[in-house]
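Checklist before submission:
- one chain only
- standard amino acids only
- sequence pasted in full

Submission:
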Amino acid sequence: MNLKRPLLFIYALISVLAVYLLANHSEHRINLKAIPIIVLLVTYYTSVKTINVKVVLFFLSIILADLIIVNLDCFSIGLLFYCLSYLIISSICWRSFKSKVRKEIIKYFVIFFFLFLIVFIYTIKNKGNAFLSLFLYGVTLSMATSLLFTNYLKRMIPTNYFLFLAIAARIVSDSILTIVLFNDYNMYYSIIAHLIYFISNYLFYKGFILRNA
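Returned file contents:
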């Protein structure tokens, strides 16, 4: 029996429910946020013939981040696990580049990191104890984005397209969530940000599935 479609339907259903609970600060949000990505991991596991350990670790790091970061007292620790996920996906892409292309990646990294600094300096006004974690998050996110962007430019195939689209969606989601968390809370912004976040996770899954096809 092919479980792919039922599992993806469950993922969509739980994601919508999670968005609603997260946006309304429900006490059940802590138990629900990580469940959609767990479903995606199971879907990946049942959909490919050869399991990529790094992909599994990528999903596991996001699951741990989702479990931890809902508790704002552990916000910095949760960010570090998101950093780990970006390092893992960067390592997946890095080996496919030749030395000449790797030099080009640095150029894109500088651009994306500069954009992050704008958000970091002007939007996140009260960084508190999360200063270092936020900075490391920006470095690893910029690194992953530059790699996935270069990967797509060099080989415009579906898997590279979905992976770059996933990281782009994650940037949009993170930017909106930054405004929500570090400035005046807006429920509608929170809903949009979390919806894009769950779409981003699906796009990562889609890219990894096509990579194994």
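Reviewer check: The mean pLDDT is 82.
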